[in-house]
Amino acid sequence: MHKIWLMIDPKLALIGLAGFLLALALSIHYILLVNSSYYDFLQGPPISPEAAAKMTPLPSGK
Asked: What is the pTM of this model?
């Protein structure tokens, strides 16, 4: 393994890896923020009006 690091500059490789991971993280977060109508992690997946009509309210705790 150490021979690989003799061929590649470790500082440049780690900076490249960090840059790639940062770009990947930002792109994933951007995709999730833009497509909030597809799946909103706060509200859950969207449901159809027919499924909403079949739902009944929860009983009260009284």
From this structure: 0.53
Give the residue from 16, 15, 41 showing the smallest Cα distance to 28: 41
What's the per-residue H, E or C state across 19-58? HHHHHHHHHHHHHHHHCCCCCECCCECCCCHHHHHHCCCC
pLDDT band (50, 70, 90) for residue 62: low
CA 60 from chain center: how many Å?
36
Backbone angles phi, psi at 57, to 5 degrees: -70, 155
Predicted confidence (pLDDT) per residue in 6-40, tens digit: 888 889 989 999 999 999 999 998 987 887 666 66
H helix or E strand, kind and range, residue 15: helix 10-34
The residue extents of the domains of the chain are 11-35
